[in-house]
What does this fold into?
Amino acid sequence: MKDYIKVDEWKIIEEGFDPHHHKISESIFSLGNGRMGQRANFEETYSGDTLLGNYVAGVYYPDKTRVGWWKNGYPEYFAKVLNSANWTIIDILLDGEQLDLAKCEVIDFRRELNMKEGYLKRSFKAKTALGKEVAVEACRFCSMVDDETAAINYTITPLNFSGTITITPAIDGDVMNKDSNYDEKFWDEVTKATQPDGGYIVMRTKKTGFEVATGMKFSIVQNGTVIQPKAEAIQKEKYVASKVELQAQQGQSISIVKYVANLSSQNHKPEGLIVQLTSTLNRIAAKGFDTMLAEQAANWAEKWKHNDIIIEGDASAQQAIRFNIFQLNQTYTGEDDRLNIGPKGFTGEKYGGSTYWDTEAYCVPFYLSTADQKVTKNLLLYRYKQLGKAIENAASLGFKNGAALYPMVTMDGTECHNEWEITFEEIHRNGAIAYAIFNYVRYTADDAYLANYGLEVLIAIARFWSQRVSWSQAKEQYVMLGVTGPNEYENNVNNNWYTSKLAAWCMEYTIEVIEKIKTSDKAKYEALVNKINFDEAIETSRYKHIIEKMYYGYDEKQGVFLQQDGYLDKEQILVKDLPAVDRPLNQKWSWDRILRSCYIKQADVLQGIYFFEDQYDIDTIRRNFDFYEPRTVHESSLSPCVHAILAAKLGDEARAYEFYLRTARLDLDDYNNDTEDGCHITSMAGTWMAVVEGFGGMRVRDGKLSFQPFLPEKWASFSFNVGFRGALLNIKVSKDGVQIKNLSGNEASVLVHGKEQVVKANDELLVEA
Ligand code: BGC
It folds into this structure.
């Protein structure tokens, strides 16, 4: 755990340069706009330890799988988020000596991520080995308004000399993925060009053939006036630059504004890329840096209006929750249903593909409440469009009749994961996709989604489960053999309660939706039946039989659902009794020791109880929580938020807060010692859930939002905005009670502690404590 980030309610601030923190900060200070993003690499050359990262959403490369022991059914490729052309570079020479913070004395270093207005700022003074002193200020952002563009304003002032400053803005397409399986480079150059004030390079991915054109246009200001210096064009393989030599006077600043555009063939015809790129660059350069930045601030102001959480009385918690919301908005804007939310977003390469069950289980609730409904719909459509590949995937594993198994990790619908215990066994992901459909419709009442898309996905998933179960003669029940639950510290187990529960629920929900659509839109239902060859009578009667006869492990003595067969045979030593030196287990213990232990990586039975909370009485929830929580090591960042929500539900406010703290500052404090690989973007949505569903106790009940809030002891108040069926509400929880402001023109009716409250349009009311 580190604590070098300064607390500020709207900013992330690092003061002083410590190279040991550099890669962590490169992750934390990352920028993005849903279409592209990058780690906070320095503009000038840095020869120290760094992880270069520039990413273009949806552009990937299928890296050939590398495993020790090949198993039939493994995918041949792992589609990876691609490190793409580095457009940040502004190289600096001071009388021929390179400015490189790894080799300088660095004074007054400060990095600041302004979350309110969406930009990254850096300032420092540096003294080179030859004694040259300069002051630098750099500001950059990825435009939220014009999402194929970005801009950098870089100012350098010689402090103790007059001489030649050489500024070389560049674009470097010769980049690699650190996680490349065979040390291969994934990009080929298509073409490039340089002009006196800029240049571009077009790169094409090997195999997938994506083309990305990255261009720059720059202007230079010296002593307050724009100058047109002579620039030397430099072209090397996969690299373009313009070298500008300027005579600088001591104390006088030189600024370069570098406008950048990044266009991909996903959104433009390859033959039109260069024309589009040039006109985009001209457009933003004509607009100017300050106007672009002002538009950026206005765009973020609008975003914050919808999704800010304000915490009074705890600046560190305030900073943390805003950081989570900020990063989620930088990662996914919902504009494009071909894109999704990678566990690391645009902050690192780890986890390869972009889509895990994290999206459906964790991110959907966040976007449902904080963004237009079309944003979540696009996340659902992403899966709908990949249904064909999910059916192919299931067929390749021996399933029939249109059964679908969605991939554990994917970019375009193809399975990428290649560890058998996860690829073939962690099939609960299929259930999360059905659950997200249910969650979306419960929240939005968009029943048309079910008729148009949802039911087709549900039937394909139900078909999978109905084939995946086995009939046990011995038990005279259906069993679910050879699975891995969310707790990846158990593999190849039988009757994982969560998976079986989810499977049966999927079939139940499918039947419910069939009934609904049959009545509401018979024609569409019949068209679907024909399209997918659905034999309703035969197939649903099998579902019903499975639902009725599904086996679930239960321990009578303790009154808990059994995580899986044999769980209680394990030595039951609680996490609190584990020596601290043994943690985290995944770094300290051999894998076989972990597998034999009772320790739970992340919410498993409790994930199911969270999903299906309404089906259980409070005593059942408490018994399961009290049993499983002490055995959970939370070695996935997705875990503590579920525990926080359940602890809040059980009235254990202190523990709810404790779990919340574990998720909220996970990256800012580098809690798990792994932030240098990138931020835990998907679990950030879990942090939001811990506040809104945990402390705010928000649920959807009978088509209404319901709140059962409590105020964490340390806080004076907290408030959050949620959108729901045309209304925008601000809920503020303080010692006075619960204040509800209706910020929209539509009347809203909500439940607070079970009692209905009607808030007129643009009105507010207080439910006293
Ligand atoms: C978790 C998975 C999760 C993945 C990506 C793993 O550590 O166990 O549940 O999907 O990370 O976030």
Q: What stands out?
A: The mean pLDDT is 96.
